[in-house]
Specification:
The complex is a heterodimer of chains A (about 500) and B (about 90). By secondary structure, chain A is α+β, with helices and mostly antiparallel strands. Chain A is about 55% helix and about 15% strand. Chain A has helices at about 1-20, 25-35, 50-60, 65, 70-90, 130-180, 185-200, 240-245, 285-325, 335-350, 355-365, 375-380, 385-395, 395-405, 415-420, 440-455, 465-475, 480-490, 495-505; strands at about 40-45, 95-100, 105-110, 115-125, 200-210, 215-225, 235, 250, 255-260, 265-275. In chain A, a hairpin with a 3-residue loop joins strand 9 (about 255-260) and strand 10 (about 265-275). In chain A, helix 3 packs across helix 5 (about 70-90). Chain B is built from five helices and three strands. Chain B has a three-stranded antiparallel sheet. In chain B, helix 3 packs across helix 4. Classes of the chains: A alpha+beta (about 500), B alpha+beta (about 90). The interface of A and B includes residues 166, 174, 197, 200 and 277 of A.
Chain lengths: ~500, ~90
């Protein structure tokens, strides 16, 4: 530690004198004062405690007293300067001297706090230098030295802070990148890839803890060397990942670094293997990875909570749908297929993940408001009277009334409210047309129409899937948005969708 | 791809130098613009160009895009030599 401190001091001293040597202000000052005290020989001692030989070497070439070192006065002259340096060292102030040849000079100490780094001096002046000139010299030199020291400190600060600021900015960017998804299947590979980028490594594996079974379940492994990887379960306490989880601290070897993901308990572990430059993992890598793991834990917990919330919401929606199905027991509704068709139509219409999720919920709940329509009206096999039809037209608004209390379903409400609007403005409840109708509702209008045509209804004969598709195509531009009809036709042309619907619809019968 | 030609463009050069000196960095266009003292919109366009040249990797998310340095060590050492031949 003492050696390091000494090295730092020596480096600082060398850099300070380098700055002073290059300082134009110091040069100007020497020229300026030099005019007043002509002749003057200037020199700079870059050491707090110089030897006589240092002075002879430094001053000697310019000074006639020291030039001839064999001369009996040479050594005396160098000693006079050393004495003056010692006084300047003690007092931290300018010190004057007269050499053996009766020539005048002075020494000014370069200080910082109590520390003396060296001296600026002059000699070979024929007359005594007035105290006014010396005061001006001291004041100017002090300003120049302080300026050089400030510049040095600033550049040191910059060198120290910049890498840290860049690292902090990286952590902030990673935080933004991983917080932008709540889908664990997308999040974990993203964390793995970002970790590999930051640590410049080849393989990353993320495992989450199954606390009951005391094992680590592999969730993602990314190997950028395109090697085949196996997702292996690991017992808590075994291997580096298991040990990191057991002890709740990073486990580092030359080619691996396992960092626990710690929330209240350890929830998992990120393990990085093989740096691309084949160097061993360092303590700095460990520090960076620990910071990254803290960010990852927050994102993983958020994604897990979101998933839980989604499960709860979907559970409530499905329960509600079950209750609604009991209203018309003979009418089997292939819900999974209609949900899938809605989702794919949403994707074909370039909806984002949130909008598609709303569509998924709406596909189950769009007719929830039928609960307010009396059974005899819903199951009436003959044509409805005007009053009965008015009751049926109330069901979108009634559906909204039922669902609006569930905050998670707020974005579903417009889909439910407007799914009976027609593209040409002839629908209900508001007679909206074209783009006035939300895209989700335009999609749901088609899904709802398909549903009512191909599932058993008391008031009409069941149509085949192809007949229903033709009917929807026929009404493109009037009842339905032509663009959405195109998305529907693309969706229905997909084999897996068609077979899912057929299996659910006819397999059930 | 002619890396030598790319390095003759000042913003390209500044970005490549930044990532070469900070190879563990992942940053947004705003961050990189701050580090190299250039206009963000110009930096953004150059970043995308460098992604096309495979000198940078883009990590795209809904809210932002993070950019990081190539992992191709051959390219890194080629850039190292070129950077040494250019004065700052």
């Amino acid at each position: 530690m003492a050696d390091m401190e000494e090295n730092r001091e020596q480096t600082y001293q060398a850099e300070l004198f380098d700055k002073l040597r290059k300082s134009m202000n110091l040069k100007r000052e020497e020229d300026c004062i030099g005019c007043l005290i002509k002749p003057a020989l200037w020199w700079m001692v870059e050491h707090p405690d110089p030897k006589v030989t240092d002075i002879e070497r430094l001053v000697g070439d310019g000074c006639p007293c020291l030039k001839n070192r064999k001369h009996k006065n040479a050594s005396v002259c160098a000693h006079t300067i050393i004495d003056s340096i010692n006084r300047a060292f003690q007092t931290k102030k300018l010190s004057k001297f007269i050499c053996v040849n009766g020539l005048h000079g002075f020494v000014y100490p370069i200080t910082q706090g109590d520390k003396v780094y060296g001296y600026i001096g002059t000699c070979y002046t024929k007359t005594d230098v007035s105290s006014e000139i010396l005061d001006v010299f001291s004041a100017f030199t002090d300003t120049i030295v302080r300026e050089a020291q400030k510049e040095l400190e600033l550049s040191k600060l910059y060198e120290t802070l910049r890498p840290r600021a860049i690292a902090l900015s990286t952590v902030h960017t990673v935080h933004r990148l991983i917080s932008s998804t709540l889908d664990l299947n997308e999040l974990l590979p993203r964390i793995a890839r970002l970790s590999l980028q930051i640590l410049r490594a080849n393989r990353c594996s993320i495992k989450l803890v199954d606390a009951k079974r005391k094992i680590l379940i592999p969730k993602t492994t990314v190997d950028l060397r395109e090697k085949k990887t196996r997702l292996k379960k690991v017992k808590v306490g075994k291997w580096a990942p298991g040990k990191a989880v057991k002890f709740g601290r990073p486990i580092r070897g030359d080619n691996y670094l396992a960092t626990p993901l710690i929330d209240e308990d350890v929830i998992g572990v990120i393990t990085i293997y093989d740096k691309i430059d084949n160097k061993p993992f360092s303590s700095f890598d460990q520090e960076i990875m620990s910071t990254l793991a803290e960010q990852a834990v927050i994102a993983i917990k958020n994604a897990q909570l979101y998933k839980e919330q989604e499960k709860l919401t979907m559970g409530s929606i499905k329960s509600l749908a079950k209750v609604l199905d009991t209203r018309a027991p003979g009418a089997y509704v292939p819900r999974a297929s209609f949900v899938k068709i809605s989702v794919v139509m949403g994707q074909e219409s370039r909806m984002d993940a949130e909008e598609i999720k709303s569509l998924e919920y709406a596909a189950i709940l769009h007719d929830a408001g039928e609960i307010v329509v009396p059974d005899e009206v819903l199951t009436k096999p003959t044509k409805l009277t005007g009053k009965e039809y008015a009751m049926v037209k109330e069901h979108p608004a009634a559906g909204v009334e039922i669902i609006k209390h569930m905050k998670a379903l707020k974005s579903v409400l417009p889909i439910i409210l407007y799914h009976h609007e027609n593209y040409d403005g002839t629908g209900y409840p508001k007679g909206l047309k074209k783009d006035q109708i939300p895209l989700g509702a335009r999609i749901m209008a088609i899904v709802s129409a398909l549903e009512s045509m191909i599932t058993k209804r008391p008031y009409r004969l069941v149509r085949t899937i192809d007949e229903a598709i033709e009917e929807i195509e026929r009404n493109s531009g009037t009842q339905f948005d032509p663009k959405v009809v195109t998305a529907f036709l693309k969706t229905m042309s997909r084999k897996e969708i068609r077979s899912m619907l057929e299996k659910e619809l006819y397999g059930h019968r | 791809m002619d890396t030598g030609k790319i390095l003759k463009k000042p913003i390209h050069m500044a970005i490549i130098r930044f990532f070469h000196e900070n190879q563990a960095s992942i940053d947004t266009p705003r961050g990189i613009a701050t580090w190299i003292g250039e206009d963000r919109s110009k930096v953004k366009a150059v970043l995308e160009d460098l992604v096309k040249q495979k000198i940078l990797t883009a990590h795209r998310a809904a809210s932002t895009t993070g950019y990081s340095y190539t992992r191709d060590m051959e390219l890194v050492s080629k850039i190292e030599k070129l950077l040494k031949s250019y004065k700052r």
